[in-house]
Amino acid sequence: MSKRYGTLCSWGTANMLVAVALLVGGVLVVSPVEADNHERHILFNSDSGNAFAEFWSSAAHLGTMDAEAMKSIMETSVDELAAAGVDALATVVWARFLAMVPSKVMPDPFYWGQGYVTLSEAGYDPVDLMIDRCHQHDMEFIACFRMNDRHGGAVGRFISDHPEWQLKGVRGGPAVNYAYEPVRQEILAYIKELLSSYDVDGIELDYMRWCHMFEPGEGRQNAHLLTDFTRKTRQLLDAAAQRRGRERLVLGVRVPQTLQECDYLGFDVATWIKEGLVDYVVPSDFFYTDFNARTEDFVKLAEGTNCKIYPAIHPIICENFYAYGADGVEAYNYQYHWGRRIGRTTSWPTYMWPAALGYLGKLADPQDIAKHDRHYRFYRLWENGAPTGEAKDDRIVLDRTESAPQGSQRFRLAEDLSNPNLRATLQFKAVGLGEDEALEIQLNGTVVPDNYILRQFYSEGQNEWQGRPLDAFYEYTIDLDWGMLAPPIINGDNELTVRLLPAQGQSEGTATIDELEVYVYVKT
Fold first, then answer.
1. Domains, the chain
2. What pTM does this model have?
3. Measured between alpha carbons, how far is residue 200 from residues 4, 31, 90, 327 in Å?
């Protein structure tokens, strides 16, 4: 078992490359992982149950599995993560003022299924089991805090007993308002307890569950409060490191993927980095991977510091983050790759678990990624606005009531298509386009000749198993290899402009350009 410090009272991916996950054998020495010397490329952020493919959330298993079987599943699952190339496991240990393990500060349990109950009753501590197994594989174990989770369900008594400290201007919940000192102090007290009781390698503050720490519109004026909270968290980590004879314990933060959103919500990331308070930053959307994310904005803030930037990858995965300076990536909600549970009563198909984990190892090496085909997706992220308050719907809408309906969409590629070993196509779906209507398509101001365009009609549209449901559409495919001419798109930010050409009998309504994609193929 890992050393305990004190005591607690009696807690789509089809576009990716597949690598086989092999279990690591042999005898390994248990030891903490030094944050300053630990090289990270792949971080795995997990709900405390989802790191184990929800094995013990399935009613089919609970009646037949004892504590030893569940312990074996937990340990083997960490083995699988290590074999897949994961360098750090960030597991949720706290949310909604509920602790995953028994706590004096947070006496209300954070329930994650019968598996944890069975383990605890048999004398096993789930957090200790994960820490020990991670350290056997030289993986960091990072305790993750969901800073204002509003999934619903049970909440700790601290929230229910203090309605005066709850957020009033957000939906879902309840959630707390970090403008109040007692809220921040209560969380700091639990962090201090956790660090005195468990040999964790650090803490990750997940501000993307669910974004608002203050009342909407009051983030900027209260940003200094979160910065003070971050300083005090750093102090607690430094004190714990000194007690253990370690150089440093890591502090990571998961924040919105644009500095504009961070500023609005009160996350002064620039100060956190400049003062050396945080060791890594995870720019992230609430739920989706965005290929247009400006990773370099965060990289620039971290220049000349030891802070690393690990953009988040979500269930739809392929990325160009490395090209803009990222040090690695953090997988979030990765369990969606086991399958979909919509309309099902059992756990996600666990047989998908090893194969899906195999994809992660490939993401650690940008040079290897460059050897294989790539697929970029520029979809709308949030049709009715993201939880952060940003719109995040970049679709082109052509309004026929306008005299010359047209629109543009930005998309970024980390590709040099002048390379003779690459071929590429661009694709989008035009929804609501009439049979007699036509589109003029421009790429970076250059009109695409008709002979490079293929147009196909799909009268049945697109159902939920094919992607987001769409009505009937025309699919446009554009060949981006123009022979002796310069490639029409560049390495960096590009612009697609679409103009609706007039047609008889079509004067009302709109047509929408949706699901812009670019496929890049490596010639062999």
1. 13-21+47-372 (3.20.20), 394-522 (2.60.120)
2. 0.85
3. 10, 11, 10, 22
